[in-house]
Amino acid sequence: MNTVWQDGPRRRGGMADVAVVGGGMVGAAAALALARAGFEVVLVDARAPAAWSADAEPDLRVVGLAPSSIRLLDGLGAWDGIRRARASAYERMVVWDAENGATIHFDAADEGRDVLGYIVENDLVQAMLWQGLDEAGVRRVVPGEVVACETRDDHARLALADGQTIPARLVIAADGVHSPLRAMAGIGTHGRDYAQRGVVAHVETTLPHQRTAWQRFLPTGPLAFLPLADGRCSIVWSLPDAEAARVLALDDEAFRNELGVASDFRLGPIGAVTRRMGFPLRLKLADRYESGRIVLLGDAAHTVHPLAGQGVNLGLRDVAELRDTLVAARDAGRDIAATHVLRRYARRRRSADGLDAWSFDALARVYGWKASPLVAARGLGIRLLDGWAPLKRQLMRHAAGG
After folding, report:
1. Which of 219, 239, 244 has its CA nearest to residue 368?
2. Crossing angle, helix 311-331 and helix 25-36, to 10 degrees?
3. What is the mean pLDDT of residues 150-161?
4. What's the CA gap between 345 and 361, in Å, rounded?
5. Which 3 state secondary structure label does DSSP give 105?
6. Radius of gyration of the chain (CA)
7. Which numeric CATH code is attached to 4-365?
8. Three-point CA angle 297, 299, 300, nearest 5°
9. What would the pLDDT profile of 8-23 be if each residue is shown by its tens digit?
10. By the 8 A CB rule, do 109 and 142 touch?
């Protein structure tokens, strides 16, 4: 199969400033951000995303975009299209414990904000970012499969499955949790497998979602109801692997009944439900974020528990930090892929990502306590937190990205 160079000249010998491998939300945002900052960028992916259509069934995969992510997307010219197409603002979040009934409430008004964030379909965000690549002058190699990456003193060289090569001063690995580029760079990972799956679907509820994100912590894991623009809710139901397989195999009526019980019928009986799918839950952190002229972004660098809904937001914060770091190096006349430049980015983001990842992991462990004294202590802590306004505001600011 011949690689197709889209929307730009096919330059076998030309040296790009940056080659981004992986065109998901984070990779596409990185390519667009760096191109708009004046770098020559090549984006390599196995396939281009399908054209987004408002008439199509909404993507089962959704993301809760924090204000920091919205600021980045707005600066890239993508947010207005996303918002007008289909985005659901949520103003409040209610989290409650199934074991002791303790509840914590978050309200955007308490922080002087209009919203806490927006629930948006993954494929819509990706599609709008790809739409901006043409105008920004990003060269796209689609389909493109990287089979090797050689780093030299002054550049790196990607080798593709079809025999072509792409030279670039810097290579960005945004190729997902199983990142082949991370492996090629010799970067290991650490973390743990939760032995759980996240079951996702869109459901109708008898009661309106009230522009609120609802999350109930059950002994088996958290269950979230996220408000969608069409009035339905997107659910993310974390379950042990065997239980997830059983729930995925239920017929619609049985699934609706079990979901209603699991949610304590907070939004009333469950109505129509879409198809369901499941994905594995794991904590995985790269041992390093850089090696030679390769740097990691997004899931290639960190995969976290979905209970706080921060995975993509962390990846987009990686993008903003890397862009600012590379612009500062270029403007100072430095090599953008020099070791000290990439380590500056890596030091800042690995510290922030690691702190968040292990905090989410600790929260999952705390909510996994089953002994009665520990459950009672957890309930007391939740109630104290709910009444401690300064700490709640601090948590909301952190989740918003500052």
Report:
1. 219
2. 20
3. 93
4. 24
5. strand
6. 22
7. 3.50.50.60
8. 60
9. 333 434 799 999 999 9
10. no
d(CA 318, CA 338): 18
pLDDT, tens digit, for every residue of 167-178? 999 999 999 999
Q: Which residues pair with 168 in a beta bridge?
A: 16, 156
**Max CA separation in the chain (angstroms):** 67
Helix residue ranges, H only, 121-211 = 122-136, 180-184
* Cα separation, 231 vs 148, whole angstroms: 47
Q: What is the pLDDT of residues 93-123, one digit of tens each?
A: 999 988 888 888 889 988 888 999 999 999 9
Structure tokens at 315: 């990846």
Angle at 145 between CA 139 and CA 147, to 5 degrees: 120
Joined tokens for residue 244: 């997830």
pLDDT reported for residue 137: 95
Judge contact between 29 and 316, C-beta under 8 A: yes
For residues 289 and 348, is the Cβ–Cβ distance under 8 A? no
CB 221 within 8 A of CB 99: no
- Indicate whether 69 pLDDT > 80: yes
Q: With helix as H, strand as E and coil as C, how does 247-310 read?
A: HHHCCHHHHHHHHHHHCCCCCCCEEEECCCEEEEEEEEEECCCEECCEEECHHHCEECCHHHCC
Which of 6-15, 32-41, 149-158, 296-305 is the most confident on average?
32-41
Residue of 49, 61, 18 whose CA lies nearest to 174 = 18
Fill in the DSSP letter of residue 230.
Answer: T
Three-state DSSP state, 225: strand
Positive/negative CA dihedral, 316, 318, 319, 325: positive
Does residue 1 carry a pLDDT above 50? no
At residue 37, φ and ψ (nearest 5 deg) are -85, 0
